[in-house]
């Protein structure tokens, strides 16, 4: 029932593909560590994405890299808006920060679940 989709890159060099899958897992882990280490791992993870983006092109891991990069942009935008609202003395910042954190958790869970199932992430999620 759950069919694993393979690509030519995956078939040609399975060891390299496994390493790329581990990198993808590392980026999800960095996103989780963002909660404990004040956002710095989020930037480390997106750096990994940008540095290795060409290697996953044309594979199902490309959808994960795109998902992770989009997650970072959305999270950074939420953090920036929240910070601006807090600096202006508004409690509105909290109402921006909480949904941003929930969105981050949601996107980590959806992405990690798809990765462990060896499937691409769908933007429908």
Can you offer a commentary on this structure?
The chain is mostly helical and 125 residues long. It has one domain (8-116). Helices cover 75% and strands 0% of the residues. The chain contains 5 helices and no strands. The two termini are 20 Å apart. The model is unreliable at 1-5 (pLDDT under 50).
Distance between the termini: 20 Å
Number of domains: 1
What overall form do the CA principal axes indicate? elongated
Report the biggest beta sheet as strand number plus sense, adding barrel if it closes.
none
Low-confidence blocks of residues: 1-5
* Averaged pLDDT: 88
Number of strand elements: 0
Strand content: under 5%
Rg (C-alpha, Å)? 16 Å
Query: Can you count the helices?
Result: 5
Instruction: Report the order of strands and helices.
Output: HHHHH
Which bin fits the share of residues in helices?
over 70%
Secondary structure class reads mainly alpha
């Amino acid at each position: 029932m759950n069919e694993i989709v393979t690509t030519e890159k995956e078939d040609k060099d399975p060891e390299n593909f496994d390493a790329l899958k581990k990198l993808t897992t590392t980026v999800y882990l960095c996103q989780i560590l963002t909660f404990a280490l004040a956002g710095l791992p989020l930037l480390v993870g997106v750096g990994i994405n940008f540095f290795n983006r060409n290697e996953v092109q044309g594979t199902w891991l490309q959808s994960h890299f795109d998902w992770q990069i989009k997650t970072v942009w959305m999270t950074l935008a939420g953090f920036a808006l929240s910070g601006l609202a807090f600096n202006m003395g508004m409690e509105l910042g909290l109402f921006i920060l909480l949904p941003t954190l929930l969105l981050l958790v949601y996107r980590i869970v959806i992405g990690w679940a798809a990765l462990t199932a060896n499937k691409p992430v769908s933007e429908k999620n």
